[in-house]
């Protein structure tokens, strides 16, 4: 928690992280699953898509960003952010000054920018 956010972080250490690096390390160290070193779209390609209503703790949740809103809602290019579903409409992720943190997905920005969800763990 609180590890500083850095867009395009190196992925070689955990002193700073961007969203997809956080997810990469969490799955690698927590479950022994290698999601590769790519970004949020690359991680989306490795999940089994599920509906938002079927979310379980540990699923990945994907969001649009200001830069990706220009793409159509059904396009993978709309994805610009990823986090881990923590239950109770909370996402564990990293962005901005707060670093790794929890955010509420049930209203506001996170609700309106939700794009997709997927399951890594079987």
Portion in strands: 25-35%
Low-confidence stretches: none
User: Based on the structure given, which CATH architecture is correct?
Assistant: Alpha-Beta Complex
- Give the strand order of the largest sheet, numbering strands 1, 2, ... along the chain: 1-6-2-3-4-5
The count of strands amounts to 6
User: Tell me, what's the shape?
Assistant: globular
Protein name: NlpC/P60 family protein
Pfam families: NLPC_P60
Family: Belongs to the peptidase C40 family.
Domain NlpC/P60: 1-121
Report on the architecture of this protein.
Strand 3 (81-87) and strand 4 (90-95) form a beta hairpin. Helix content is 19%, strand content 26%. The chain is globular and about 35 Å long. The protein has helices at 19-31, 40-44, 108-112; strands at residues 48-50, 60-63, 81-87, 90-95, 99-104, 114-119. It has a 6-stranded antiparallel sheet with strand order 1-6-2-3-4-5. It is α+β, with helices and mostly antiparallel strands.
């Amino acid at each position: 928690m609180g590890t500083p956010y850095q867009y395009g972080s190196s992925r070689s250490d955990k002193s700073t992280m961007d969203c997809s690096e956080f997810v990469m390390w969490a799955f690698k160290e927590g479950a022994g699953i290698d999601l590769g070193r790519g970004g949020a779209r690359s991680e989306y390609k490795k999940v089994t898509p599920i509906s938002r209503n079927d979310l379980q703790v540990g699923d990945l949740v994907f969001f649009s960003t200001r830069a990706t809103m220009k793409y159509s809602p059904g396009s993978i290019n709309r994805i610009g952010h990823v986090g881990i579903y923590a239950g109770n409409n909370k996402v564990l992720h990293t962005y901005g000054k707060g670093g790794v943190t929890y955010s509420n997905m049930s209203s506001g920005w996170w609700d309106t920018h939700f794009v997709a969800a997927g399951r890594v763990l079987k």
